[in-house]
Amino acid sequence: MSKLPAKTETIENVESPAFDPSKAVEQVRAVAEQSVEQSKEVFSKLSSEAETNQKAVESTLEMAKTTGNEVSLQVIAALRTNAEASFAHLEALVAVKSPSEFLELQTAFLQKQIEKSAEQAKALQALMLKATEDVSKPIKDALEKALKEGKAA
């Protein structure tokens, strides 16, 4: 290895850029204004999304109320129908003159009630499925819209 001479040189005629405070203030102001604009855009977007979500929740609650009423009305109608059939059956049983007639009436009634109960259960199941879809639709639509907007951004 060779040794380098131990000389120290001083550079005196080198120009360094001068610090200009007015340019620094302008740059800080520009960055601050840009930050404020970006903050306003983010706030506006969040506000819009919050409003959309609020409308979706309100719509969902209204739909839940409506479909809940429909389900209640259908259940009440089924109960009323079954009660009326039971009272009619009791009236028919009072007029029975023999055990065989009683057994025949009772068997026919039970068979009819089983069929009617199956029909009522199917109708209630279809209504509940529709109600579930209707209630979840506003939230589902809002979520899909948010996902599309998120992918686009």
UniProtKB/TrEMBL annotation:
Domain Phasin as annotated: residue spans: 51-141
Top-rank taxon: Bacteria
Protein name: Phasin
